[in-house]
Write a structure and sequence with these properties.
The protein is α/β, with parallel strands linked by helices and 350 residues long. Helices cover 47% and strands 15% of the residues. It has 15 helices and 12 strands. The strands form 2 sheets. Strands 1-2-3-5-8-9-10-12 form an 8-stranded parallel beta barrel, surrounded by 7 helices. A two-stranded antiparallel ribbon has the order 6-7.
């Protein structure tokens, strides 16, 4: 299992990166930058590439709809080039609130678009002339499909460092998880409860793996978890409260009633009544009550928070569930404590 770390897109990004070398020195092997509807992730990862030596650089997560598949491929190839082969292209569908609200693009066919994006990216990196006839993307765009008829089947000018940059799909729905297991090198779920991997994702992972090309190698599971190693009960509760409020935001507030992927996921964990209550409270504007309604055992299971012995048990639970990259989000208040916690996690991971 590999230790990674997410970078927050809020706050003073440059100050954070000034301190990133300290985390690299204690064994943090991957860094990931989110995008959402803030600054773009790629320019920030380019800055990180220049300030680090060994860390893998993961986009976490570029929305499918904000860039064409070819642009995603070019972007990943450029990041891979300037970093000496350290790029991981993480993509996901996001949701209609962001895609239609912020990008003004129709949110349709996320599964088919993800599949075709993976195909097109790999053709670009292999420097093949782009001739692709998909349901959602046609290269070149012919007159029959609404183009001018002047498009040519081009190939990328530069030679990519790698002809297959690892691709990660962020997914929690059964069909998306199945696609990740079939077509992608990595799969990143959200609000991950390691003891319920099979209940939440087992059938989908099995179905996708059955269709997987052996050349892709085993599917790597990448998960994010808040981290704080402490014996202080007040400090532990402060950090658990952060997780509780974060979980309530997604379980209760992300998506419409009846169309919330995160709420459905928590129900697959067995928290059916709790998920409904959290959503009712959150959508009713009672956000603190929604956070208080998030089950304590769920909060602790998804986290790396508590005394060293407790955190060691959680590390093993993540390992036993097949997690290959553990993106630990340090929650300590001081930089020194955050580095110390990551050093301890690196030791526990081995």
């Amino acid at each position: 299992m590999k230790l990674g770390m997410p970078i927050n897109y809020a706050g003073d990004f440059r100050a954070t990166i000034d301190n990133l070398h300290d985390f690299e020195e204690v064994g943090v092997a991957r860094v990931t930058v989110p995008e959402a509807y803030s600054f773009d992730a790629v320019s920030q990862l380019g800055y990180i590439a220049a300030r680090t030596e060994t860390m893998e650089l993961q986009t976490g997560i570029l929305p499918l709809y904000s860039r064409t598949p070819t642009n995603l491929a070019m972007t990943a190839a450029g990041l891979d080039y300037i970093s000496g082969g350290r790029a991981i292209l993480g993509i996901g569908a996001s949701g209609p609130q962001v895609i239609e609200g912020f990008h003004g693009v129709k949110y349709d066919f996320p599964l088919g678009r993800a599949r075709e994006t993976a195909d097109i990216c790999r053709k670009v990196w292999r420097r093949e002339r782009l001739e692709y006839e998909g349901k959602h993307y046609q290269l070149p765009l012919t007159a029959e499909n609404g183009g001018s008829g002047l498009g040519k089947p081009l190939k990328i000018i530069n030679h990519p460092v790698r002809d297959r940059i690892p691709m990660l799909l962020a997914a929690i729905g059964p069909k998306n998880v199945e696609l990740a297991a079939e077509k992608f090198e990595e799969f990143q779920p959200f609000l991950f409860h390691p003891e319920y991997l099979d209940a939440a994702f087992g059938p989908a992972l099995a179905a996708g793996t059955a269709k997987r090309d052996p050349e892709l190698g085993p599917l790597q599971i990448v998960v994010q978890a808040a981290a704080r190693i402490s014996d202080d009960e007040a400090e532990i509760e402060r950090c658990l409260a952060i997780v509780r409020h974060h979980a309530a935001l997604y379980i209760g507030g992300m998506g419409a009633r009846g169309k919330n992927f995160y709420n459905s996921l928590v129900q697959r964990y067995g928290y059916v009544d709790e998920a409904k209550l959290i959503q009712d409270l959150y959508l009713g504007g009672r956000k603190d009550e929604a956070a208080a309604a998030v089950p304590d055992d769920l909060v602790r299971a998804m986290s790396l928070i508590g005394p060293r012995s407790v955190v060691a048990e959680r590390v093993e639970a993540f390992r036993d569930s097949g997690v290959g990259v553990l993106l630990a989000a340090p929650s300590a208040l001081s930089h020194a404590d955050r580095v110390a916690d990551m050093a301890t996690l690196r030791e526990l991971i081995g």
